[in-house]
Amino acid sequence: MVRFMDKDSRSDVPLGRRSPMATTRVMVADRNVITRVGIRSILERNSGMAVVAEATTYEAVIDGVDEHGPDVLIIDLDLGDDTTRGLKLCEEIADRYPGTKILVLANTLSEMIVVEALRRGANGYMCKDEVKADELGKGVKAVQDGDTVLGRGVGSLVARGLGSTRGVHEHLTDRELDVIRAVAKGLSNKQIAHEIYVSESTVKFHLQNASKKLNAHRRAEIVHRASAAGLL
Amino acid sequence: MVRFMDKDSRSDVPLGRRSPMATTRVMVADRNVITRVGIRSILERNSGMAVVAEATTYEAVIDGVDEHGPDVLIIDLDLGDDTTRGLKLCEEIADRYPGTKILVLANTLSEMIVVEALRRGANGYMCKDEVKADELGKGVKAVQDGDTVLGRGVGSLVARGLGSTRGVHEHLTDRELDVIRAVAKGLSNKQIAHEIYVSESTVKFHLQNASKKLNAHRRAEIVHRASAAGLL
DNA sequence: TAAACACCTAGCCAAATGGCTAGGTGGGCG
DNA sequence: CGCCCACCTAGCCATTTGGCTAGGTGTTTA
């Protein structure tokens, strides 16, 4: 079952279905102290859950999950300078620790990232700026129950995306990202070619492919979209 | 006095200097519930301060300050779709309510925004992702005391910036921002000209000026910088 | 093994861009 | 009153770009 949390769909979330004594054990991964404290407060006070571990780096997430085996991992994919690594982390956790459900709590809302995260094993995706206090606890409970949760705004975004393009799961390759990052620095194709030791043609090739994947037609737009997706 | 919070300079913050009974009254403006709860927890539990009001929109900030007259306003400049409005808000608060000190707590760290905020009356600038739990309370106390506080990373950034370019306070005009936002959408100069009802020459003119101010040489770089500064 | 994929290269051409000079207007401020 | 500033326009020209077609390699995977 997939739960959308747009509008007033909150009423359909069945509360008290689970054994009331089984405290949900949560782990929080976010580089931001304020956010960690906030999540802890909300979860422990209002939902009777226990935050058993925290992490601020990609490495610490693995260690924490391994050591504490939480029921749910709330994670911000951006734990360093590379969101892509957060996605890989999702995959690894989902793979090695199937008992731990993953709820992504992101700063930015990008269709591409959402789809990628879900594809790689995340059980839910919510946006920090959109989520209401009570929704957080409900979201955690839902993913623990095995549901897929899409927070406010996320659901409609994905639905819209799925309708428009067939694949959508088209993610940028490493090389394409290299080129995009260079473009963001204001380099010309020639300069980029020189920087990454390939011909100018190759740079253009990667850029063309990236354009199609991001549905952009100008390098400025590519940079904008990549930036909005937290990719650079 | 300006306090930098890089490295281990925390030891030089004089604690207990103020009357121990005068509880600091704080107002928090941030669209993100988690952040609001987090700040409240940190401040009330560890520093004995009181969060007397919260706000999630630009309008509500003014109302809250007017009604509660907090000692310190902790604000995220990005309360909507336009960070520029947050800057104007700073100016207005500093102007009309000099009794309320302003501590900006930003998501992103951009030299331009920092300088602009301070120029318009903010008393401190900290970055959410960099700040440590204890620094938040100390920062609030410091701005209340009339000091200017620059959080970890912010101080060095500004110092570096001040040394490099003479002016730096060069901020983008409204029109330049219009054009940059259009560029980010992937429009050509011709399309932009049509969209904002000016000639193509004018679009190029604004872009050239923006290039100089942002020290960029290609539109992709302009978009990147503006994006990093939270301007689009 | 064949397909799929990331990656690399070449050339073509119209269109867009960057970098400049050289003008114009109206509003605000010392 | 000048002066600065945001804003608007024009033209020039070398360079860059977008979009295309048409190849090539090596690795992974069904």
How would you portray this structure in words?
Two copies of one chain form a homodimer. Chain A folds into two domains: 2-164, Rossmann fold; 174-228, Winged helix-like DNA-binding domain superfamily/Winged helix DNA-binding domain (Arc Repressor Mutant, subunit A, Orthogonal Bundle), CATH 1.10.10. Chain A is built from ten helices and seven strands. Chain A has helices spanning 33-46, 58-68, 83-96, 111-119, 133-144, 154-164, 174-184, 189-195, 200-214, 219-228; strands spanning 2-4, 25-29, 50-55, 72-75, 101-106, 124-127, 148-150. Chain A is elongated, with a radius of gyration of 19 Å. The longest helix of chain A has 15 residues, at 200-214. In chain A, helix 3 links the parallel strand 4 (72-75) and strand 5 (101-106). With 232 residues, chain A is of the alpha/beta class. Chain A starts with a strand and ends with a helix. Mean pLDDT of chain A is 84; it is low at 6-21 and 162-169. Chain A binds chain B through residues 31-42, 107, 128-129, 131-133, 136, 183-188, 216-224, 227-228, 232, and chain B through 31-42, 107, 128-129, 131-133, 136, 183-188, 216-224, 227-228, 232. Chain A binds a DNA duplex (30 and 30 nucleotides) through residues 173-176, 188-190, 198-202, 204-209, 211, 217-219.
